[in-house]
Amino acid sequence: MASPPATNCSAVLLVVLVAAGTANAAIFTITNQCSYTVWPAATPVGGGVQLNPGDTWTIDVPAGTSSGRVWGRTGCSFNGAGTGGCATGDCAGALSCSLSGQKPLTLAEFTLAGSAGGSQQLDFYDVSVIDGFNVGLSFSCSSGETLTCRDSCCPDNTKLRHCNANSNYQLMASPATFSAILVVVLVATLAAGGANAATFTITNRCSFTVWPAATPVGGGRQLSPGDTWTINVPAGTSSGRVWGRTGCSFDGSGRGSCATGDCGGALSCTLSGQPPLTLAEFTIGGSQDFYDLSVIDGFNVGMSFSCSSGVTLTCRDSSCPDAYHFPNDRKTNACGGNSNYQVVFCP
């Protein structure tokens, strides 16, 4: 099935959170109001199903669930065992997702308050096109407002909202803790004939082994303390990510797993890492490039990231004032095109 257009989509996948009878769960009612089939996915609870036009899928999500995500997949084909692939939003070829979806995808994100009597009595939710737009989506809460993305311009993008506990809600994850810092150095270089690539020099100054990963260019490898990894990233690369993985074990074919930042059990990553993970994010443009650090998906290893014509961003722990904690923090920094970019771990 051909994928629908990624912009100017008038159809909307409707996601509604309905309060359950106790403080132990919220009911997500997911309805496909598009004119074509959508395969919604939900993590960490739900997995995924096929929804024909007009169909509805209901999920019970426990109180205290954090970093929840719902998104629509398009152009999918699965066999009887539930393996296959999607044109957009694919989660490693599975019908029932346990991994995050691949870009582009429109995201509904949420964090639910804990059980009755807990310290957190608000839940949070948002709609995001940070990872691109693939299908229209609206997200509403019974005691809050409706957020709607009908196209890639989406004025409701990353507008964090809250609802009372026992309503319907969304937000992001809690950071972890690590004392050591992984350092990434991003150095802009001129390829033969022009500004065609940037060189990322990734150095492990931690006292333990780190398995850095990079997408969409680079993949991943093992770095012992003091080792360096260099990646050439083409100009025009957008939504780039570098993160450190810890506690990994891989066999000779590059298959295994990591305690944090795992990307579908692969040494060389093509999928996004699983939370918690500290992220260096970047877009290599023409006259101007952009970079940031993010702990929206949690914190797992210290990292600093800098540009020769900009500021140095450093995260040594989960409190990290230089990083995005929520999508609307606006912690993105700019450098001129052909600058030297440095992300330093363990400064």
Automatic annotation (TrEMBL):
List the keywords (alphabetical): Disulfide bond, Signal
Q: Which cysteine-cysteine pairs are annotated as disulfide bonds in the entry?
A: 248-258, 263-269
Pfam families named among the record's database cross-references: Thaumatin
Keyword Signal present in the record's keywords: the answer is: yes
Looking up InterPro entries in the UniProt record yields: Osmotin/thaumatin-like_sf, Thaumatin, Thaumatin_CS
Give yes or no: UniProt keyword Signal: yes
Which residues are the signal sequence here? Answer: 1-25
Question: What is the protein's name according to its record?
Answer: Thaumatin-like protein
